[in-house]
Amino acid sequence: MRLTPLLQALVLSAAGAALDAHAATTLSKGDQAIVTGMAQANMAEVAAGKMALEKSSNADVKKFAQTMIDDHSKALDSVTALAKTRQVTLPTEPDAAHKTMAARLQKLSGDAFDKAYMKDAGVADHSKVHAKLMQDEKAAKDPDVKALAAKMLPTVQSHLDMAKAAPMAK
Questions:
Q1: pLDDT value at residue 100
Q2: Is there a contact between 28 and 82 (Cβ–Cβ < 8 Å)?
Q3: In terms of Cα–Cα distance, which of 72, 67, 12 is closest to 41?
Q4: Of 156, 39, 132, nearest in space to 90 by CA
Q5: Is 90 exposed, middle or buried (0-12, 13-18, 19+ CB in 10 A)?
Q6: Are 79 and 42 in contact (CB under 8 A)?
Q7: pLDDT tens by residue, 78-99
Q8: What angle (nearest 5°) sits at the alpha carbon of residue 25, between those of residues 21 and 26?
Q9: Spans of all domains in the chain
Q10: CATH 3.50.50.60 is right for the domain spanning 28-169
Q11: Angle at 28 between CA 26 and CA 31, to 5 degrees
Q12: Would you give the distance in Å from CA 16 to the centre of its chain?
């Protein structure tokens, strides 16, 4: 069967659109790693915040922990939405470093827990995440991944500032 020039153009156009749609839904390996890292960092902050709500009796620590749960849950929702549209399978739990921190925190109680939580999950972790997001924003190829990193930076900076200002983090 011979295709007319108009039919040929339509077939080629449809094939090109299908390829463009596929390319728009997938991310490079580097961008996939960035999205995965964002998810793990947010999961870790939510988990650590929940632990702090259970283990701490300090009102300031509990307030900080609730802020971490609220803000990082929203951020994780954004990461998950991007991952879903770009066909990235996210991990279901934090990475090894965050699991180690959680295990160490779990063994502590009272003031020792509060100080360790604020120093580790508050100051140290947010310092690392902030630096990583700045790096990710520059390294990401996909504009949506860049935008997500940029969107998260002010919140992470705010968390870092709150943690540094907390007396128990000193």
A1: 95
A2: no
A3: 72
A4: 39
A5: middle
A6: yes
A7: 999 999 999 999 999 889 999 9
A8: 125
A9: 28-169
A10: no
A11: 100
A12: 33
Q: Which residue has the tokens 């003031």?
A: 111
Query: According to the model, what pLDDT value does residue 45 have?
Result: 96
C-alpha span between 35 and 42 (Å, rounded): 11
Q: Looking at the predicted structure, is the pLDDT value of residue 147 above 80?
A: yes
> Burial of 33 by CB count in 10 Å (0-12 exposed, 13-18 middle, 19+ buried)?
middle
Rounded to 10 degrees, what is the CA torsion of 87, 88, 93, 97?
-170
Encoded tokens for 61: 């620590």
Question: Considering Cα of 142, then 146, then 151, then 156, what sign does the dihedral take?
Answer: positive
Paired tokens of 55: 């283990």
